[in-house]
Amino acid sequence: VQLQASGGGLVQAGDSLRLSCAASGRPYTIYAIGWFRQAPGKEREFVASISWSGRNPNYADSVKGRFTISRNIAEDTLYLQMNSLKPEDTAIYYCAVRPSSMNRYTTWGQGTLVTVSS
């Protein structure tokens, strides 16, 4: 499966942004798809995930109540609606899939940069 993330940009604190991740190809059954991020000088961290059927969203505590993950099954696209953005949300955001046969995310998109100025 190939993943193409987009929608990043430069915004001010308090603004909103929506990230998209288009998925193509499906050589294996997918259990879940999610968003991760990596800030400068920090390790990659989990942001949110959702089942391939579009159910059971999960969020990191740091984004709960501000970010919403969703999936358009017909368009095979994953979204991350980010509201009330903070400077600490600045990072490269990656989408990734977890195959049903694995307990980890194995396929990653190229990332999209989100910069939040104070």
Structure report:
There is one protein chain. By secondary structure, the protein is mostly beta strands. 0% of the residues lie in helices and 54% in strands. It contains no helices and eleven strands. Strands 2, 4, 5, 6, 9, 10 and 11 form a seven-stranded mixed sheet that branches. Strands 1-3-8-7 form a four-stranded antiparallel sheet, with no helix packed on it. A hairpin with a 6-residue loop joins strand 5 and strand 6 (58-59).
Radius of gyration: 13 Å
Summarize the main sheet. Answer: 7 strands, mixed
Q: How confident overall, as mean pLDDT?
A: 94
Shape type: globular
Element order: H for helix, E for strand: EEEEEEEEEEE
Query: Runs with pLDDT <50, length 5+?
Result: none
Distance between the termini: 37 Å
Decide which structural class fits the backbone.
Answer: mainly beta
Instruction: Give me the count of strands.
Output: 11
Q: What's this model, at a glance?
A:
Helix content is 0%, strand content 54%. It has no helices and eleven strands.
In terms of topology, how is this protein built?
Blueprint: E1 2-6, E2 9-12, E3 17-24, E4 30-38, E5 45-51, E6 58-59, E7 67-72, E8 77-82, E9 91-99, E10 107-108, E11 112-117
Parallel strand pairs: 2-11
Antiparallel strand pairs: 1-3, 3-8, 4-5, 4-9, 5-6, 7-8, 9-10, 9-11
